Amino acid sequence: MRDADDVIANVRRGMLPAHIYNDAEVFEAEKERLFSRAWMFVAHESELPQVGDYVVRRVMENSFIVSRDQSGEIHAMFNMCLHRGMQVCRAEQGNASHFRCPYHGWSYKNDGRIVGMPFHKEAYGGEEGFARKGQRLLPAPSLGIYNGLIFVSMDPDAEPLEDFLGDFKFYLDYYTKQSASGVEIRGPQRWRVKANWKIGAENFAGDMYHTPQTHTSVVEIGLFREPKAEKRKDGNTYWAGKGGGTTYKLPPGTFEEKMSYVGYPDEMIERMKEQWSQEQVDVIGRDGFMISAASVFPNISLVHNWPKVAEGDDVLPFISIRQWQPISADETEVLSWFVVDKEAPEEFKKLSYKAYLMCFGSSGMFEQDDVENWVSLTNTAGGSMARRLLLNGRMGMLHDDSPVVQPLTEDEFCGPGVAHVGYGEYNQRHLLNEWADYLEKPAPVTENIHVGAPNVDGECSSETAAQCSSEKAEA
Ligand code: FES
Ligand SMILES: [Fe+2]
């Protein structure tokens, strides 16, 4: 990447080289250094409720089968046949005990183990010539699960997922742990936008400043109570661990009153109180900040909002998870899921889904407003003039780098991380600083994995000794 040191130094002081939002070289560096190392969301466990359920998801250009095997365990397997490399599973989701490659018919169990090879004896000399034991579809180098959210990393030495998420787990629970049963998710809807992936991630992480301008029409038709400028600035933005987000300041009242103000029925509020820690309850009840949009580095975002779904003043909350799947420097595939507490009443689920579709589904009103800006930004960033421009991403910071407002104290906000009230680009800077950290470090060294190599003395040629020994024990 050209001028990498300058780019990184400028990003660190909040002055953003405009071309990073549309530059093939920057994109290559992201592929090599960031997406090859960070934890990437692929699916939620509730998408695989039964044994044999699977979905096919991508991490950059790598296709993975995410499956629940016959014993209930979750796997993420590289979707490429060990024989000549055909994509083994062509469907997007389904239920199967086995996958058979369409090219020559090798077949694999839903945990990845190879079981069938046509004409095994004639073509390979049977087990003696090619032992199937120990051969399996290549697993994702690392796999981690938090609250049912399944992540993979291309780095075999990735730090544990929970360490990576760090204190952001505290906030993730609001979206994905509202009862002991966890959430169920519907989707994803997918669509492509001609915009760079970082813009959406930054926007959801902390851009409270755009709401009154970009979403004027949504406010004007009276769909929301809160997004008005004067309301939005009373909320805070927080950054903790690998993520951060925005909140709305709610009118005074108890935890129960505040939750019911955004439309939760009493029975759901009771369950949330049981699930969440005292601090998690206090962020809303004592401090009055209601969790809204957020992003987890690098490319997942979460939304929690409460529009009016029918005539009258009643609002109803919805939750959504979305992923900004990079396609190129100027194109992103958006994957968008509806998320709801498994134990929520049916009527709530129905109306909440409607609220989600109305705001952030593929044709959602917010979605339409936002993307037009992002496409335009990406286009402009691709030209030669953009190479001369440093964008000002310093909102909330004075000339000498001191903050415009002091961070909230523990008495004002008991969530982890650093939080500020009002407009600021703290979170966008955090996100880009993480980005800079990754771009500075070289990509992980990848070792050859000799899947499919002939076995010697009955030794497993599979990629991990652990799998090998479990297979031996089973045999
Ligand atoms: S490529 Fe899959 S069986 Fe030949
Ligand atoms: Fe927006």
Number of strands: 20
In the sheet with the most strands, the strands line up as 12-18-17-16-15-14-13-20
Q: Low-confidence spans: pLDDT under 50, at least 5 residues?
A: 456-475
Q: Whole-number average pLDDT? A: 92
Taking the sheet with the most strands, its summary is: 8 strands, antiparallel
Strand content: 15-25%
Please state the overall shape, judged from the principal axes of the Cα atoms: globular
**How far is the N terminus from the C terminus?**
51 Å
Helix percent reads 25-40%
> Taking Cα atoms only, what radius of gyration do you get, to the nearest Å?
24 Å
Question: Which structural class is indicated by helix and strand composition?
Answer: alpha+beta
Bound molecules: FE2/S2 (inorganic) cluster, fe (ii) ion
Q: Count of DSSP helices?
A: 17
Report on the structure:
- The protein has 475 residues and is of the alpha+beta class.
- It is 31% helix and 24% strand.
- The protein has 17 helices and 20 strands.
- Strands 12-18-17-16-15-14-13-20 form an 8-stranded antiparallel sheet, with helices on both faces. Strands 5-4-3-6 form a 4-stranded antiparallel sheet, with no helix packed on it.
- Strand 7 and strand 8 (107-109) form a beta hairpin.
- It is globular, with a radius of gyration of 24 Å.
